[in-house]
Design a protein that fits this description.
By secondary structure, the chain is of the alpha+beta class. It has three domains: about 100 residues, Immunoglobulin-like (Sandwich); about 120 residues; about 140 residues, Glutaredoxin (3-Layer(aba) Sandwich), CATH 3.40.30. About 35% of the residues lie in helices and about 20% in strands. Strand 11, helix 10 and strand 12 form a beta-alpha-beta unit. The relative contact order is 0.07.
């Protein structure tokens, strides 16, 4: 595993979210919202209200400036609770949180955050208390940093101690804030922004430092302070960013590892239906479309373990669920590590059958292609070069023509002297390889071992040669230079 690097540890002083303000939730709301915003010095005729959801931000409403400088967003509707942005003058001026449906905000362009004033209950006051304290301490920290630039020796040591004391003061304040306002949206939101603080690693029996402790601790405690029951966090930028970090930075990027990761998150998300719905939907979409070889196993896992077990029955209809199940079940037999489905086709003379499972070779490529396919016309001659180079080491190609008309296929075979096993459907014979191998486009390329287990799939020929060489070299075969060059990295 590559060396693990913690995300840049934001000093507690820099946790100041100088652009956010929190508005609390009322127990009951009518179908109406009114957000009034005035920014002295702003004369842009139109402003926008935008909201966060998952990985994106989207426009929610538009308001024109009135003759007194107010932008009034109003509708007989309700706003989802969460983070919103005030957008004007071609930029986002500040973010704020909606937890009630009537909000009044005033500020100015010169000091937008410092001079912001608001009307809205207790939650807002909590967060403003937090912001005011940190803003004050941030100014103190900036002054110390400036003084350090021209200091050395004992004076520099004293300034460093002063900065440490300031950090400890802020940490104490934040700890007390969370203790005092535990369960509030302010507290949950601030915790959601934070990453685990890793203690000093323990020593091994020989006295050396446990070099893996930092990574393991950080990974194991990554979600400790994230309140999955608070679905308002879905309407901030925190959840998607942390989910993306968790999947991409803390787990090896192969299917087995990622399957463990998605199960961890989904287990936590199930405490809230909306969190579960977003998480499962996002992960399904991500791993259905991902191009990385072998990661389709994550999609299959998600469908079989969750959708086919009824987890999404409340938000997907039968048609949608059946479509997902059909797709997953089609991909399942073709996952890396599984034995490839058998193929039985007729040879070029249409006089005898060729069967994939009859091929005796250390490595076999199943190559499903068409003589009329543009990509195939480029890839097939390259595969011929690879075949000629490596067939002496027990490498075979089981070529399957995907068309029912064989004239152009036969001509292409003769022209390029494709002396591997060539088979196709023809005459009255029709096999089922198009279904079993999920053939929606050509070429389709699968590398199998001697037991016909899938080692790699759906790769270009340049990648195929590199993967084949990897396995041959692991078998102890000494090879010369690759036959294909980098500029041949195409289908």
């Amino acid at each position: 595993m590559n060396e693990f690097i913690l995300p840049m540890k934001t000093k507690l002083l820099l946790l100041l979210l100088s652009f956010v303000l929190i508005i609390p939730q009322l127990k009951a709301e009518k179908e109406h919202y009114k957000i009034e915003i005035k920014v002295e010095g702003l004369t842009d005729s139109v402003a926008y209200l935008a909201y966060y959801f998952g990985k994106g931000q989207y426009y929610r409403d538009t308001a024109n400036i009135d003759d007194k400088g107010w932008y009034v967003f109003e509708s007989n509707d309700t706003l989802e609770h969460g983070m919103y942005s005030f957008v004007a003058d071609n930029s986002k001026l500040f973010d704020f949180m909606v937890d009630v449906q009537e909000i009044v905000i005033q500020t100015d362009l010169e000091n937008t955050i410092q001079n912001i004033k608001f009307e809205g209950g207790k939650e807002n006051q909590l967060f403003f208390e937090y912001m005011s304290f940190l803003n004050e301490k941030q100014l103190e920290a900036s002054a110390i940093e400036e003084e350090k630039k021209e200091s050395e020796g004992k004076k520099l040591d004293d300034l460093n101690m002063k900065m440490t004391a300031l950090d400890n003061e802020v940490k104490t304040f934040i700890d007390k804030f969370h203790e005092k306002y535990d369960g509030s949206f302010s507290s949950n939101f601030l915790k959601a922004l934070a990453y685990p603080e890793v203690p000093e690693p323990p020593l091994n029996e020989d006295g050396s430092v446990d070099s893996t402790f930092t990574f393991r601790y950080f990974k194991d405690h990554f979600w400790d302070d994230y309140d999955f029951s608070d679905q308002r966090l879905l309407h901030t930028s925190t959840y998607h960013e942390k989910l993306k970090y968790f999947l991409s930075k803390l787990f090896i990027q192969n299917a087995d590892s990622i399957i463990k990761a998605v199960d961890i998150v989904l287990e936590k998300a199930k405490v809230n239906e909306q969190m579960l719905k977003y998480t499962l939907t996002y992960l399904t979409s991500k791993y259905e479309r991902i191009q990385q070889m072998g990661m389709d196993a994550v999609f299959v896992h998600l469908v079989k373990k969750y959708y086919m077990k009824g987890v999404a029955d409340d938000w997907l209809d039968d048609k949608q669920l059946n479509k997902l199940a059909e797709r997953a079940l089609a991909l399942d037999p073709l996952l890396i590590g599984k034995k490839a489905p058998n193929i039985i086709v007729k040879d070029t003379s249409m006089s005898k059958y060729l069967e994939l499972y009859d091929v005796k070779a250390n490595y076999t490529v199943v190559y499903i292609w068409s003589a009329t396919c543009g990509h195939c016309k480029v890839a097939t001659p390259k595969l011929k070069k690879v075949y000629d180079q490596y067939k002496q080491y027990g490498f075979e190609v089981f070529g399957v023509g995907s068309e029912f008309e064989n004239k152009e296929w036969l001509e292409f075979i003769r022209k390029h002297e494709l002396n591997w096993l060539n088979g196709s459907d023809g005459s009255a014979y029709k096999s089922n390889f198009r279904t079993t191998y999920d053939v929606y486009s050509t070429p389709q390329t699968y590398l199998l071992d001697k037991d016909k287990k899938i080692l790699a799939k759906k790769m270009n020929i340049f990648s195929l040669e590199n993967i084949l060489r990897y396995y041959l070299e692991n078998d102890g075969i000494e090879l010369g230079d690759p036959i294909l060059k980098n500029d041949e990295n195409s289908k």
